[in-house]
Amino acid sequence: MLIVLAKAHVGKDALEPARAAIADMVAASNAEDGCIAYAFTQDVLDPGVLHIVEKWQDDAALAAHFATPHMASFSAAIADLDFTISEAMKFHTDAGAPLM
Length: 100
Known about the structure:
Layout: E1 2-10, H1 15-30, E2 35-42, E3 49-56, H2 59-66, H3 69-78, E4 83-92
Antiparallel strand pairs: 1-3, 1-4, 2-3
């Protein structure tokens, strides 16, 4: 399994115009084969920071994700906005275990 952790910096006037593209991206990504979970969250201490958390079955599923039409649509939708993915890391892991 893969965990992807990414961070985006979004200008104060860019979040609202990006919101529909983010929602479409999350819904379409969660529907992909091989996607276990996909979410954007807004940082509670810095509203200009979004955290992207993804879980994928394997490298092939993640590679397929990058080739999807909704990935291209999302990239096009944020291209002219003050929206920068500043960090993205993938981690190979096992399925994990409950903390509680």
